[in-house]
Amino acid sequence: MEDNSRPEENEKKKDGMTLRVCGIEPESIVDGPGFRYVLFVQGCPHHCHGCHNPESWDPKAGFDMTTGEVFAEIMENPYLRGVTFSGGEPFEQVPALLELAKMCREAGLSLMSWRQDMIRIPTSCSACWMCLLTADMMKNCAI
After folding, report:
1. Nearest by Cα to 112 from 20, 38, 26
2. What is d(CA 111, CA 119) in angstroms, rounded to the nearest whole number?
3. Which among 59, 126, 112 has a CA at the least distance from the CA of 84?
4. Following DSSP, what letter does each residue of 59-76 receive, concatenated?
5. By C-alpha distance, which of 87, 37, 30 is closest to 61?
6. Strand 110-114 to 82-86 pairing
7. Are 48 and 99 a contacting pair, CB within 8 Å?
8. Which residues contact 66 (CB under 8 A, 6 or more apart)?
9. For burial by CB atoms within 10 Å, which of 9, 14, 29, 62 has the most?
10. What pTM did the predictor assign?
11. Model confidence over 41-85: pLDDT tens digits?
């Protein structure tokens, strides 16, 4: 029987932290600028009316991947310009996505995260993915 339990926030495997994944679009031109890899995370507490991905709501659905596995898939395509985190709710899996974001940034890829509107993570940002949580950028956030 398949284990569909939600990964613990601090769970680390050999290839990095575990992400609960709804799906992957390995080559997208509609989820941010340029040719992008899109990771749709599983689990969303918001259940917004008109959601494009209601199948992503249940945190026990989907499948597990480690950050290392996802990063290896991303790096297989030399034409990718960036990575977009979508969902589900990416901010429900911050520790693992932070780890993945750091790997992507070190590889020179741009990052974006989808919440209720697209959020671009500045290329010049020397902090980390968590800089999105600043009051300025989150002023319209429903959290």
Report:
1. 38
2. 9
3. 112
4. TTSSEEEEHHHHHHHHHT
5. 87
6. parallel
7. no
8. 13, 14, 15, 16, 17, 18, 19
9. 62
10. 0.75
11. 999 988 887 888 899 999 999 999 999 999 999 999 999 999 999
